[in-house]
Amino acid sequence: MTNSMAGYYCIKNWTDLQLLGAWDYPLFSELEFFVRPCTNGTNNITCKSQEDIDLLLVNGCFGSYLSTGVVDPGNYETPIQYTPMNFYTRVSSETYVFYELDLQHLEIQTDSGILLEDIHSLTGIAQTNQKSSFSLDPQDVIFELWIRLDTIKKVYTRKYDKIQNVLANVGGVFNVLMLVEPYY
What is the per-residue pLDDT across 85-129, written as a single tens digit (0 to 9) for each? Predict the structure, then answer.
């Protein structure tokens, strides 16, 4: 067995791809990815025969390796951690597979001021839902993948006690102790 990736197609340049759409954005968009069998007459390419295509796709697969954000509000420095997420499905020229991946904006607002309010925001993205369907009815598309950005934004808010609040609480405890102390 060889370790060659020659039989795979990897998208090399993701810099021009953008997903738009959040609850406060005027635009909404999705990324749609289709795998269709070659047909003669498109782009001056001579296609293999249907038998050759079927033979190639007998053990065909589509795999994707993504990462999804997980929020850890207790982690002050990096509250959004990314964890791997794999997707793998079988494909052939005899079937149609549809897969939808929904992503969501994450935002963590942290009030990190010592005396005054000082709010900083961190943003990330997480997977929220995935759906797939499979059909034995041959289509002109072998595999279809939609990646959508959910229009709902998940916002976490973290606040830390200010020095003046801590001192006021300590002063309140001290007053209670002064009231109780004469009775002992």
Answer: 888 888 888 888 898 888 888 898 988 777 778 888 888 888 888
* Residue 22 forms part of a structural domain: no
Residue 63 within any structural domain of the chain = yes
Residue 44 lies in a domain: yes
Q: What is the pTM of this model?
A: 0.65
- CB contact at 8 A, 47 and 36: no
CA distance 87 to 85: 7
Q: For residue 150, what are its two tokens?
A: 């959910």
CA–CA distance from 78 to each of 74, 99, 121, 122, 124 (Å)? Answer: 9, 31, 12, 9, 11
Domain that holds residue 103: 30-183
pLDDT of residue 81: 92
- Whether 23 and 150 have beta carbons less than 8 Å apart is answered as no
Q: What is the pLDDT of residues 150-170, one digit of tens each?
A: 777 888 888 877 777 777 777
Radius of gyration of the chain (CA): 27
Phi and psi, residue 173, nearest 5°: -65, -40
Tell me the three state secondary structure of residue 101. Answer: strand
The verdict on residue 23 lying in a domain is: no
The number of domains in the chain is: 1
